[in-house]
Design brief:
Helices cover about 10% and strands about 50% of the residues. The strands form two sheets. A six-stranded antiparallel β-sheet has the order 1-2-3-9-4-7, covered by helices on one side. Strands 6-5-8 form a three-stranded antiparallel β-sheet, with no helix packed on it. A hairpin with a 2-residue loop joins strand 1 and strand 2.
């Protein structure tokens, strides 16, 4: 894997994803959201843990919404259909996925 140097940023719609660390086992990223942004509903085979650094968000998963704010975290199991809605401008989440999100890393190096 290439090292995480320089501009490690991917833009997915209005959401900015900055890859902070990546290995075969784990990817860690900082996600920044504008106010009132809804991420596209998706699923993946990775376990996902989200820690809210700033703002508050609704995590929609398993057919229900969970609101979390700065200092709180939530786990999304592999294969679960989910999305995220931000409420504050400058909302920031630290996200980790295991195993590595090779799909995001590939997008990074295509940019």
């Amino acid at each position: 894997m290439k090292s995480m140097n320089g501009n490690n940023t991917i833009q997915l719609g209005e959401i900015t994803i900055k890859i902070l660390s990546n290995s075969e086992a784990l990817t860690v990223a900082e996600l920044t959201f504008p106010a009132d942004t809804l991420a596209k509903e998706h699923q993946h085979p990775h376990e996902e843990v989200n820690y809210v650094v700033n703002g508050y968000f609704d995590f929609i998963h398993d057919g229900h919404a969970t609101r979390i704010s700065a200092g709180e975290s939530i786990r999304i199991a592999p294969g679960v259909l989910h999305n995220i809605r931000s409420h504050d401008a400058g909302g920031v989440i630290l996200t980790s996925w295991t195993p590595s999100r090779h799909d995001l890393i590939e997008k990074l190096y295509k940019n």
